[in-house]
């Protein structure tokens, strides 16, 4: 049969032409594809985890105790329940997966895993059948070579070589949208992925129909990774602002058939004017054409929990102006459904959305979309979900090895308990040793340096600052507590796990900055913003610390022999609270010189301390702060065999300006530690009340004492 060109063109357009063995076109009949009726709907659940931080088991390796408030083994139970409720679903992760516990540190640093092995957290995520994932800032903490290996990805960066062969890695696609290689100018990881899925749909007549959809996912990290992990990333990668990167790729994803575009943004919500350098730029992704927004980094709950007795909204959310168009109760930002599932696997974000087939495309129905950040007690507000029994066996070997590692002795004892329960009330038992270790390191570095510039600093006072990193940010169990019950009569031997409890971030390297007295005061003012402004005349209850969301920015300063002292007036607004700042008994002048021992995060600009932006850094140590603390403790063991409260845990450099208040002022902390506050001499902590909705104990603080 002969076909004329008109007939051939028509048949080709209709999909009715194939090539025969002699390349002559022949007519064929394509398989029938059911048409999707107008008005057909699909109900889809997007599930999110974020900031897992290597918390796989419901276990605290620092205290060597079970902690049922966290862990992927319980998140897995939430996932299974949500999947049963929503047959059409996708499980996605928003980054900060591999770092955060001794388990992660052991597999990345102490005993780095081989290419043939898979990180414990990734083993479990593979078993949970994640559909996709993004990156967080902490993915870069262990360096690009390890990250390349454990993700089985060639980044295309000179000098960063993935081991040959196939390395153990996530079995789901990973995406990273705003990071490119300096040399190549290309994304180091695929900037997006289109997940092809078949979902069950409902036609207007109520009957079912299977439909194919493409879900596009992309992922964003804070631009500050170039500061926070400068030692790993400088000269190797470049960062694009989240909005610019999204605007580049969202249209491309749509062109390639994305029916739904989901942004995995490792950043919180900041509705202030957009900048490509914003740490928390997620808000500004809502103007780029995305359909759903999964966020993280801030370790907060968004929207407000729906379970009985759910905690109040974090003050940072509650304070958003109405003009920002952020609905923190229902979970919408500028009309885009948005969820943040806290951290450490403690919640599961669920965006349940309905899409209607309209004019040949799937359209989200906002009125039929709900958002939930579901916690372990979602059923009744009281009962924790049980752990998924299939998870523990997957990493039993790694779990046991981590515990054995954590128990190794440091060779030094302590006669006091080092805790952060009352760090915001003046207790320094969990902070002073860190400051002493950092200070001793920097003084020795300067004294032994052969560099003429460094040696010229030997007459400048060296001080140190550190924060109570574990002081409630991640719930009522998230506090440092080293050697509970230790006393002069019954000292306790310290172990490998303890420096990580005192200094959480194993990726931080020690650095030192040279500053003026005016810089010091501005630094202290920034730290003091952690406190709420207390109205002495108010009779209603007031929170001394309204939010623990950025507690890692509460720097406490220390000088040898407690030579630096200062006071904080919490009745004043932020920025004008520091008074009576003295060094060696003399008021600190704006022109005085100081060298501050700190970490690379803070020295490079982390925490937005005015003037501390990397330009004042004089020492960049190759040693991690956590290692510096560990080595200092070991050295104390060699010298004296012990650390003591008198020498290492009682130098309170700061206090509150005394003020009487008409109503109660409270500090939220782990419950049951009033006796510890009293035995530590914290006279301002006068009573303990009941629990709040998040499980924190409410302690009365008398600011007049």
TrEMBL record:
One of its GO terms (molecular function) is hydrolase activity, acting on ester bonds. Belongs to the 5'-nucleotidase family. Residues 504-608 form the 5'-Nucleotidase C-terminal domain. Keywords: Hydrolase, Nucleotide-binding, Signal. Residues 49-299 form the Calcineurin-like phosphoesterase domain. NCBIfam families: PRK09420.1 (NF006938). InterPro entries: 5'-Nucleotdase_C (IPR008334), 5'-Nucleotdase_C_sf (IPR036907), 5'-Nucleotdase_CS (IPR006146), 5_nucleotidase/apyrase (IPR006179), Calcineurin-like_PHP (IPR004843), Metallo-depent_PP-like (IPR029052). Residues 1-18 form the signal peptide. Pfam families: 5_nucleotid_C, Metallophos. This is Bifunctional 2',3'-cyclic-nucleotide 2'-phosphodiesterase/3'-nucleotidase. SUPFAM superfamilies: 5'-nucleotidase (syn. UDP-sugar hydrolase), C-terminal domain, Metallo-dependent phosphatases. The keyword Signal applies. The keyword rRNA-binding does not apply. GO terms for biological process: nucleotide catabolic process. Coiled coil: none annotated. GO terms for cellular component: outer membrane-bounded periplasmic space.
């Amino acid at each position: 049969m002969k076909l004329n060109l008109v007939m051939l063109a028509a048949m080709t357009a209709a999909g009715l032409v194939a090539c025969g063995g002699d390349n002559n076109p022949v007519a064929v009949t394509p398989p029938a594809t059911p048409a999707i009726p107008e008005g057909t709907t699909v109900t889809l659940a997007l599930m999110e985890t974020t900031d897992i931080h290597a918390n796989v088991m419901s276990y605290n390796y620092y205290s060597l105790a079970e902690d049922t408030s966290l862990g992927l083994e319980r998140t897995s139970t939430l996932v299974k329940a949500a999947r049963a409720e929503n047959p059409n679903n996708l499980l996605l992760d928003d980054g900060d997966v591999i770092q955060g516990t001794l388990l992660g540190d052991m597999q990345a640093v102490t005993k780095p895993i081989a290419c043939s092995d898979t990180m414990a957290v990734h083993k479990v995520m593979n078993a949970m059948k994640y559909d996709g994932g993004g990156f967080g800032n902490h993915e870069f903490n262990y360096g690009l070579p390890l990250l390349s290996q454990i993700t089985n990805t060639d980044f295309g960066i000179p000098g960063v070589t993935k081991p040959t062969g196939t390395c153990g890695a996530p079995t789901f696609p990973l995406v990273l949208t705003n990071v490119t290689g300096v040399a190549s100018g290309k994304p180091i990881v695929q900037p997006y992925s289109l997940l092809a899925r078949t979902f069950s749909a409902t036609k207007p007549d109520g009957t079912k129909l299977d439909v194919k959809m493409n879900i596009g996912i992309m992922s964003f990290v804070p631009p500050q990774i170039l500061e926070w992990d400068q030692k790993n990333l400088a000269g190797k990668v470049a960062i694009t602002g989240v909005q610019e990167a999204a605007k580049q790729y969202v249209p491309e994803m749509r062109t390639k058939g994305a029916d739904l575009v989901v942004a995995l943004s490792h950043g919180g919500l900041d509705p202030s004017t957009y900048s490509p350098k914003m740490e928390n730029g997620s808000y500004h992704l809502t103007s780029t054409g995305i359909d759903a927004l999964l966020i993280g980094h801030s370790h907060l709950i968004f929207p407000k929990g729906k379970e009985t007795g759910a905690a109040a909204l974090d003050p940072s959310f509650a304070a958003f102006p109405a003009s920002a168009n952020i609905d923190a109760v229902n979970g919408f930002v500028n009309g885009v459904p948005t969820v943040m599932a806290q951290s450490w696997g403690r919640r599961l974000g669920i965006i349940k959305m309905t899409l209607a087939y309209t004019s040949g495309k799937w359209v989200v129905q906002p009125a039929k979309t709900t958002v939930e950040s579901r916690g372990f007690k979602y059923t009744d507000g009281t009962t924790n979900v049980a752990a998924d029994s299939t998870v523990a066996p997957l990493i039993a070997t790694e779990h046991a090895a981590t515990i054995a590692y954590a128990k190794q002795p440091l060779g030094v004892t302590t006669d006091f308990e080092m805790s952060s329960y009352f760090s915001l009330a003046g207790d320094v038992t969990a902070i002073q040793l860190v400051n002493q270790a950092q200070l001793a390191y920097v003084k020795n570095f300067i004294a032994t340096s052969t560099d003429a510039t460094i040696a010229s600093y030997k007459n400048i006072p060296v001080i140190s600052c550190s924060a109570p990193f574990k002081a409630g940010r991640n719930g009522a169990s998230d506090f440092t507590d080293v050697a509970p019950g230790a006393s002069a009569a019954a000292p306790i031997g310290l172990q490998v796990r303890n420096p990580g409890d005192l200094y959480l971030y194993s990726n931080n390297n020690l650095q030192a900055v040279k500053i003026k007295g005016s810089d010091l005061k501005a630094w202290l003012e920034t730290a003091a913003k952690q406190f709420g402004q207390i109205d002495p005349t108010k009779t209603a209850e007031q929170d001394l610390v309204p939010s623990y969301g950025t507690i890692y920015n509460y720097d406490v300063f220390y000088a040898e022999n407690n030579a630096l002292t200062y006071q904080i007036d919490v009745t004043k607004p932020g920025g004008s609270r520091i008074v009576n700042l003295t060094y060696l008994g003399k008021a600190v002048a704006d022109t005085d010189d100081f060298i501050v021992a700190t970490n690379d995060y803070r020295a490079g600009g982390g925490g937005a301390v005015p003037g501390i932006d990397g330009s004042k850094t004089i020492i960049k140590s190759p040693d991690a702060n956590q290692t510096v603390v560990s080595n200092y403790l070991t050295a104390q063991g060699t010298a004296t065999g012990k650390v003591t409260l008198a020498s290492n845990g009682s130098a309170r450099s700061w206090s509150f300006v005394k003020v009487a208040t008409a109503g109660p002022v409270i500090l939220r902390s782990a419950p049951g530690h009033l006796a510890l506050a009293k035995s530590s001499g914290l006279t301002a902590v006068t009573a303990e009340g009941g629990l709040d909705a998040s499980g924190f104990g409410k302690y009365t603080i008398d600011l007049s004492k």
